[in-house]
Design goal:
201 residues, mainly beta, 8-stranded mixed beta sheet
C-alpha cells in the first residue's frame, strides 16, 4: 500500500525547475481586477487577460496559462485590514483606492506535482509510459475551507500538441502498484504558456 495515500486532487504545486534546478520560491505579483467574480485557489491555473490583470484559466484541453496561483493579498473593504491568504474569494470587496495582487509561479521552466484522475475528483493513475506525453487538465472546484485547488490531470494522456501540460516524471513514493502512479510531475507546454506562444491577450 502506498504511503501517503493520494485521496483527492490538490492543484498544481511547484517542486523544482527543469534540469533539477531548485524552485527557490520566485514568483511574480499579478493584479486581479476588483470585483472579479470567480474564486481562485492555491494551485489553480491562471492566465493574463486584456487590461493587464489575471483570471482563473478554466481551460482543459486548450488552457493557455501564465502560471499557477499561490496566494493573494488585498485590503478588506469592510475591515480596512490587509489580508494575505491562500485563495481569492469571488467578488471580493476591497478598500477604495487599493488593488488585489495574486502571487503567481510564472517561470515557464517550473515543474509541478499534480494528481491524476479518471474524471472529476476520482484518483486514478498512469503507467511509466505516460512520461513524455501531454495531458488535459481537469477543472474541479477548490475548497474555501483549505484554500486549495482541486485541479488535476486526466489519466488518458496523448501526444496532441495543443494539450496544456507535459508529463516529465512520475512520483514513485505514492505508487499504488508497480506501474500505477497517481501523482506525476508536469511542465506547462512551451507552446501553450502565455510567455512563449505568439498570440497576445
Amino acid at each position: 500500500m502506498a504511503y501517503p495515500t493520494v485521496s483527492a486532487p490538490y492543484g498544481l504545486k511547484p517542486v523544482n525547475l527543469i534540469g533539477g534546478q531548485v524552485f527557490a520560491g520566485a514568483t511574480r505579483q499579478m493584479e486581479i481586477a476588483s470585483g472579479y467574480a470567480t474564486s481562485i485557489f492555491y494551485g489553480d491555473v491562471v492566465k493574463r487577460v486584456s487590461g493587464g490583470t489575471i483570471e482563473k484559466d478554466a481551460g482543459t484541453a486548450t488552457a493557455t496559462p501564465a502560471g499557477i496561483f499561490l496566494g493573494v493579498q488585498f485590503t478588506n473593504g469592510s475591515t480596512g485590514q490587509v489580508q494575505q491568504q491562500q485563495f481569492y474569494p469571488a467578488s471580493q470587496s476591497i478598500k477604495s483606492g487599493t488593488k488585489i495582487f495574486a502571487v503567481v509561479a510564472d517561470d515557464p521552466d517550473t515543474l509541478f506535482q499534480v494528481s491524476v484522475v479518471s474524471s472529476g475528483t476520482t484518483i486514478s493513475g498512469v503507467g511509466i509510459t505516460a512520461i513524455g506525453n501531454n495531458a488535459e487538465l481537469v477543472q474541479n472546484a477548490g475548497s474555501a475551507t483549505t484554500g486549495n485547488s482541486a485541479v488535476a490531470i486526466l489519466a488518458a494522456t496523448a501526444t496532441t500538441i495543443t494539450l496544456p501540460v507535459r508529463i516529465i516524471d512520475v512520483v514513485r513514493d505514492t505508487a499504488t502498484a508497480a506501474d500505477n502512479f497517481p501523482e506525476v510531475i508536469v511542465k506547462i507546454n512551451a507552446t501553450m504558456h502565455q510567455y512563449n506562444n505568439a498570440t497576445g491577450v
